[in-house]
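Hi,

I'm pasting everything inline rather than attaching a file, because the server keeps stripping attachments. The sequence lines come first, and each chain or strand is labelled.
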Amino acid sequence: MKRFLETINVRELLQPLAQMILFSLGSGAVLSVIVILLALLLDQTAAGQFLLERNKVTILTYTLVNLPQVVLDGLTIGFVYAAIALGYTMVYGVLEFINFAHSEIFAVGAFVGVEFLILLKSFEIIPATSLFMSYLWLIAAILAAMFVAGLLAVSVERIAYRPLRGAPRLVPLISAIGVSFFLQDAIRLIESLTTGQFHRIIPSFGNFDERLVFSKIALGASTIELGIQVKSIIVIVAAMLMLIGLNYLVNATKVGRAIRAVAQDRSTASLMGIDVNRIISLTFLIGGTLGGAAGVLYALKFTRIDPFVGFFPGLKAFTAAVLGGIGNLTGALLGGIVLGMLETFAGAYMSAFTMGAAGAEYKDIFAFSILILVLIFRPHGLMGENVTQKA
Amino acid sequence: MSKISQLLNNFMQKIGQGYTPYFITLLHIVIGASLVYASPRSTISFLFLLVAMAEIYYFKMRTEFKIIAVIILMLGIMPILGLRNIFYLEVIFQISVFSALALGLNIVVGFAGLLNLGYAAFYAVGAYLWGFFGSQQFYLLHETPGTAPVGTPFFLPQDYFYLFLILGAIVAALIGLLLGLPVLRVRGDYLAIVTLGFGEVIRVLANNLDKPLNLTNGPQGITPIQRPSLSPEVLDGFNSLFNGLIGRKVSEGELYNVFFYILSLLIIAVIILIARNLEDSKIGRAWTAIREDETAAIAMGIPLVKMKLAAFAVGASFAGTMGVLVAASRTFVSPESFSFMQSIGVLTMVILGGVGSIPGVILGAAVVTILNLQILQGFSLYLSELRQSDAVIPLINFAWRDLSTQLDPAKYQRLLFGLILILMMIFRPAGLIPAERRKRQPAETKSE
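And the predicted assembly:
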C-alpha cells in the first residue's frame, strides 16, 4: 500500500485542483467587478430608471442580489463545457483535426444515461431507493454512458476518419460534419422507433432536485433565496473528478506520455516504438468517455434532452477549447469555465442593462462573438503557445 | 467487371458517333415529354425526361444544337408539362435555386478552398432584404409581431423587385466582405467554425429582431411579400395561346409559378456564365493556386486576402440574388429556412456533384433536391400507405400498422446529408463529375 502511494504523483493531482479553483474564483471575480461597475454606470441612466419602474429595485441592488446565483450557475455550466472541450482539445492536439461529431458523442452519452435511468424506473428500482443507492445508480448511468460513448467515438474514428488520414485538411472535417448529421438522425430514428418519441426527460429520483438554501434576501416585495441545487454540486464535483483524472492520465502516466509524444510528432513517436494508431484510438476513447459523462451531467442539470441537444453545447465547448488555446488541456478547462461564466452573466444581465431590448435569447450568439473575436485577435487562445501551421 | 465496362465503353462509343446522339436525344425528349404529358403524376416518367439533360451534356454534339435543345426542353416543353402537374415546376424551380446556391458555395469551397458552413446566412440576407422592403414591414417597425393594422400600404411598388435582384447580390456581397475581412486570416478549419457561428448569428438575429425595432417580425416571419406585377393581358395571352395544349384555363397563381420558374432559369444561366468565366480568368487561377498551396500562392505574388475576399463576395452575391427571388416567389420569409441544415444541404450538393466542377455541382443540386422532394417524400407516402393497410412483414411477423408514426423518411434529411458526406469523402472525394483540372493533376500528395 505504501509503495503504491509513493508511485502516485501528488503534484499532478493537486495542481489541476488548484487551477480549477483559481480559474473559477478569478473569472467569477473579474466578471462580478465588471458587472457591478456597469451597474454603477447605468444607475442614473434610462436603463436604471426602467428597472426601477418595472421591478421596484435599483439596478445596483438587482445586480448584487443576483450575483452569487449567477456565479454558481455559470460555474456549473462552465464545468460541463470544460468536460466536453477536453474531448475536442485532445483530438485536436493529436490529429490537428476538429472532431465535429464530438457534440453527437455527447448527445449519445446523454441518451444512454437517461434511457438507463428510465429503464430503472420502469423496473421500479428508482425512485424508491435509499439515498446512497440512488447515488450509486446515477454513477452507474454515467459509467454506462461513458462506455457507450467511448466505444462510439472509437468506431467513428475507425470508420470515418482513419481512411482519410493524410488527405487535405478539409476532407476529414467534412466527413466529421457528415458523421455529426448522421448521428443526430440515427439517435432520432432509434429513439422514435423504440419509444415512439425522441424527447426524453430524465426521471427525478434521489435528492438531486433539492435546493440547499444558504440565506434569504428581501428585495422589494419579494424575497430571493440564495442557494444551490444538489445536482449542480454533483455536476461540478463529477466534472472536477474527471478533469483531475484526465490530467493525471495525460501528465503522469506512461500512456499519457505516449499521447503527448504522438501529439508532438507523430512519425518520431512511431519510430520510438509507440503504436500511433492505438494511441489515436485511445485519444478518441478518452474524449468520448468524457463527452458521454458530460452528456449525463448535462441531462441531469437540464432534465430534457432531444437528439439535437449536442449542437449548442458542442459548439460552445469548441469555443471554450479555442478560447483556452486548442490542444492545451489546462486551456480547455479555463476556456470552459470562462465561457460558462460569460454566457450566464450575459444571459442574466443583458436584459436589465439594455432595457429589455436584448435579452437572454442572445446568449448563444454571445458565445460565437467571443469565438470570432478570439480567432481574430488571439488565434492561439489564452494559454496556447503561438504555433504556426504545420506544412 | 472489366469486360462489362469495356463492352459499355464500346457501346457508348458506338452511339456517340455521327448523327446517332442527335437522334437518340431527340427521341428521348419526345418520348419523355409525351410520357409526362400522358401521365402527369408519374415520378418515373418525369425522371426519365430529366435524364435527357444528362444526354445533352455527355453526348458529342454541336454546341449550338445542345443550347437549342436545352432551351426547347426547359422553356418550351417543361412549362406546359409543369402546368399539368405544378409540382414539377416546383421541383425544377428548387433545383435551380439550389444550383445557384451550390454554384455560389462552389466558388468559395471549390475554387478557393475555403470551407463556409454559414452559407445560408447570405441567402437569408437577400431574402430578408426584399422581405423588408417588398412588404409592409417598414410601416410596422413599432408594432408587435402579428398585429398589422388592416390596410397598411406596401413600402415599395412591386416592380422594384427587379432592382432588388441586383441589390440583393450587392448587399450580400458587402456582408460577405464585412465577414471576410476579419475572419479570412484564420486557418481553414477555424474558418469553417467561424462561418458556422456567423450563420447562427444571422439566424438568431432574424429570430429576435422584432424588438426594439420590429425589423424581421421575429419567428413568425414576414408575409405577405410582393411579387413583380404580371398584367392581365399576359395571362389572357398565355391562356389563348396554350389553352389547347394544357386543356384548361391557367390561373394567375399558376402563371406566377411559370414566371418564377423561367426567371430562375435565366438567373441560373447568368450565374453559370459568370462562374465559368471566373474559373478560367486570372482570378480563377489565383483561387486555384490558393486552394492548392497558400504559401506558394503568396510567393507567386497573389494578393491572398484580396482574392479570398473576392471569392467570399462572389459566392455570397449568388446567394443574395436567390434569396430575393425565393422571398418573392414564396411571398414569405421566416428564420427557419436559413438554418445550419440549409448550409449543410448546399455543401452536400457541392460535395456530391464534385468540388470545383460546375456541371457536377448542378448535378449534385438536382440529385439532392430530387431525393428530398420526390424520393424521400414518395417513400414517406408509401410507408403511410403501408401503415394503413393490413400488410405484415413475413418472417418477423411485424405488422406495418404498428410502425411508429415518427418514422417519416421525409424528415430524415440529416441522415441523408450525413451519409452522402461521409461516403463521398471516403470513396469519391472528387465528386460524381470531378472538376476538369483535378483530372489532369497527379494524385493528391499526402500532407503530413
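Residues 59-95 of chain A form the longest helix (37 residues).

If the labels don't parse on your end, tell me and I'll reformat.
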